[in-house]
Structure formats: structure tokens, C-alpha cells
Design brief:
Helix content: over 70%
Number of domains: 1
Radius of gyration: 17 Å
Strand content: under 5%
Shape: elongated
Number of strands: 0
């Protein structure tokens, strides 16, 4: 049951990030770096949903919920990277990538593998940090409430 929850919420993260970046591209805002940071809230939403569902199902072990939230974030990030690779090839491949990589993360020429690798590691870091912060919150609220 827990794996189904992780997959479902990971897919929700993927859909949220995908729709967010498609909307940014549609409105011509894909070059605004500060808007790209908002995808962290989508990842945190999916991770929080998994942890909350686990707690509602009686799973109160800190480490188990932390790993479950982290796996949810990784699933969403992996699906997002796969979707991005497909989208880049649909839009023109390396020539389209050159319009995306004109940010402070990538100076100079880059390729799809390098671009997606950096985004994957960023996603792993945000999933790890998001899972930890949310588990600290839920630990104080549900697992060990202060009276």
C-alpha cells in the first residue's frame, strides 16, 4: 500500500512540475530563474501528502516516513527528468536546450545529459531537504506532540 502511495504522489509531483513548466513556456517566462524555484513547492506538496497519508494509516516510524517521503520526491523528479528529455527532443533537441541553459547554472555550451544530470541532483537535494523538514514538522505535531 505504501509503494502505491509513493508512486501516486510521485506522479502528482511529475504532473505538477510538468504543467508548471509548460505554463511558464507558454507565457514566455521559462527564462525567469526565480520562477523556476517555485517547483520546490510542488515537490514539497507531494512529499507532504505521502507523509500525511502514512501517518493517517498508522505508520508513525520517523525513518520509515522519511524514506517514504524521499522516495516520493525521487519518483517525481525522475519522471520529470524523463518528461523534460522528451520535451527537449520534441522542441528541437540541442538547439532548444541552448535557450534553456542560458541561466546562472550553465555557463557556456552544455548537452542534454549534463543539463538533466544537474537538474536530477538538484531534485534529489530538494527531495532530501524537503523530506527532512516535513518530518521535523510532523514529528512535533503528530508523533511527539508537546503538551
Amino acid at each position: 500500500m505504501k509503494n502505491v502511495t509513493e508512486l501516486r504522489n510521485g506522479f502528482i509531483i511529475f504532473l505538477g512540475i510538468g504543467l508548471f513548466f509548460l505554463a511558464m513556456d507558454f507565457f514566455g517566462l521559462s527564462n525567469k530563474n526565480y520562477l523556476r524555484a517555485l517547483n520546490a513547492f510542488i515537490v514539497i506538496y507531494g512529499i507532504n501528502k505521502t507523509i500525511k497519508m502514512n501517518l493517517n494509516n498508522g505508520i508513525t516510524d520517523y525513518l520509515e516516513n522519511f524514506i517514504s517521503g524521499f522516495k516520493t520526491g525521487i519518483i517525481g523528479v525522475l519522471l520529470g527528468i524523463i518528461g523534460l528529455i522528451i520535451y527537449i527532443y520534441i522542441k528541437g533537441g540541442e538547439s532548444y536546450l541552448s535557450t534553456l541553459s542560458n541561466t546562472f547554472f550553465f555557463l557556456g555550451k552544455t548537452n542534454i545529459i549534463m543539463y538533466c544530470s544537474v537538474l536530477f541532483f538538484e531534485g534529489v537535494a530538494s527531495s532530501l531537504i524537503g523530506s527532512f523538514v516535513l518530518m521535523q514538522y510532523w514529528k512535533d505535531v503528530v508523533i511527539n506532540p508537546k503538551y
